Amino acid sequence: MSDGRNIQPPGEKMRRALAWVGECLAAEPDRNRLTLLREAEIRFDLSPAECEFLDHNFDCRRCNQHHG
Predict the structure, then answer these.
(1) Residue-averaged pLDDT of the chain
(2) What's the rounded Cα separation, in Å, for the pair 36 and 45?
(3) Position 51 pLDDT exceeds 80
(4) Using CA atoms, how far apart are residues 25 and 22, in angstroms rounded to an integer?
(5) Distance, CA of 9 to CA of 62 (rounded, Å)
């Protein structure tokens, strides 16, 4: 049984994922955003709803059209 120490408050994974994505984009502005978001979704174990939020708010189709 879990002792509860690994449970994060609601939204904490998303905050950490967004901070990580921001750091990666600051370091590598030309990095493929779709690939970066997929990596964040796995790295931070985001829920389907959280993944959908990232996809919607970081519209990668629009980003990729502007960057080539």
Answers:
(1) 80
(2) 14
(3) yes
(4) 5
(5) 32
